[in-house]
Amino acid sequence: MIHLKALGIKFISVFIALFITVNFAVTFYETLLMSVLFTLIGYVLGDLIVLKYAGKFVAPIADAAFVWVAGLLIYQSYTYLVSVLSALIIAIVEWFFHDYVERRVLETTAGQGAG
């Protein structure tokens, strides 16, 4: 249940960031689909693996790089500036989200595994 709450928070923040930055260039459906994709892949790779093993300073950079590269690969109509802006906004949001993940998700799941 704790992962679903974290995924919900992450999805909302990613969706808002993408809606602000790319909605003028793509449809609402594409923004929604890209948000789901970035949320699921970013949560598993960035929040559960990179954050846990590389730390809070590396994880937002990895998230931003993922969003930037994936955005450029998925949508060729993406401009470089829009891609960088999306990645930057998501990296800033992720910085705060990683505090939540460290306190609520990683500590809770580590405590459950030890018991």
TrEMBL record:
InterPro entries linked to this entry: DUF2512 (IPR019649)
Keyword entries, A-Z: Membrane, Transmembrane, Transmembrane helix
UniProt keyword Transmembrane, yes or no: yes
Transmembrane segments: 7-26, 32-50
Protein name, UniProt field: DUF2512 domain-containing protein
Organism: Novibacillus thermophilus
Taxonomic lineage from the root: Bacteria, Bacillati, Bacillota, Bacilli, Bacillales
